[in-house]
Amino acid sequence: MTAHPYSPAYQAGGFGFVSGALSVDENYIPVSGRAEAIEAAATRLAERLATIGMSMQDIVKTTYFVTDLTLREEANSHYEQFFSVPRPARTFVEVSALPYGATVEIEAIAHRGQE
């Protein structure tokens, strides 16, 4: 894994803050395919959450950064399948580029014992 000058995940006061998880594989190679890229970013996000003893079910807010705004349909479908109601709040933003050639980056805020 590449060393970064920041914490991939950090916890404070019952909250978990996860730096952007990219749509790359374990070797930082970008994952191709629209739904596959979203799933890869979600997998990297789950891995980062696990480092602070949290899971995707603890997420209360996500921010998606995508290089193609039309990925919103796939993101909505993934959100509906993955999260139960009430689903976490979400922001969806198009950007010109992402590190390592990724097409999706997801950051999150989680909270222990959220209701």
From TrEMBL:
<dbReference type="InterPro" id="IPR006175">
    <property type="entry name" value="YjgF/YER057c/UK114"/>
</dbReference>
<dbReference type="Pfam" id="PF01042">
    <property type="entry name" value="Ribonuc_L-PSP"/>
</dbReference>
<comment type="similarity">
    <text>Belongs to the RutC family.</text>
</comment>
<protein>
    <submittedName>
        <fullName>RidA family protein</fullName>
    </submittedName>
</protein>
